[in-house]
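Recap from last week: sequence in, structure out.
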Amino acid sequence: VNLHNYMYYTGVCCIDEFDKMSDTTRAILHECMEQQTISIAKAGIIATLNARTSILASANPVESKYNPRLSVVQNIQLPPTLLSRFDLIYLILDKPDINRDRRLAKHLVGLYFKN
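Predicted structure tokens:
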């Protein structure tokens, strides 16, 4: 089987907890994002596969609280070389509001439990 002919196109790879990824996994992902290939060594077969896909990733800030005085890189502590591979970095900030949070919690619980 010639694995070099297989290509992976138009998919979306969704990664949650991107900030908790190990350095080894991050290095593999960096290869994929930089060279659009994935190297595989299994059962004596060594192959490099083309991987052209979109990556959607979410990451939490350090200590689970975003510090507006720090840059995005400092807040999530991911290497700038990896972050530069993303075309768009979008921040979603949750501003604590006890009344709004209580209403949201009641609504969500109400979806599953009726009074």
